Amino acid sequence: MTKKEKELEHEKETLQMMSRVSKHAEVQQILDSQESKDSWQVAFYIMAFAAGCLCTTALMMALNIVH
Questions:
Q1: What is the Cα–Cα distance from 28 to 22, expressed in whole angstroms?
Q2: CA atoms of 8 and 14, how far apart (whole Å)
Q3: Which end of the chain is less congested by CB atoms within 10 angstroms, N or C?
Q4: Contact 28/36 with Cβ under 8 angstroms?
Q5: How far apart are CA 62 and CA 25, in angstroms?
Q6: Does 10 or 33 have the greater pLDDT score?
Q7: What tens digit of pLDDT does each residue of 32-63 get?
């Protein structure tokens, strides 16, 4: 290989590596946003469960008072 061919090969490999790093960063950003979305969803389900328990307890207490 001539010096020019080696330089072109090195440049090509560098561009490929930069492309992979860029794609990896994009995927990591998507995963990070998905994780934060999942944590909010878990918190929502916990709050909904707690609210359901409170409503059920209040209803049972109201029925016991009436009965």
A1: 10
A2: 10
A3: C
A4: no
A5: 56
A6: 10
A7: 887 777 778 888 999 999 999 999 999 999 88
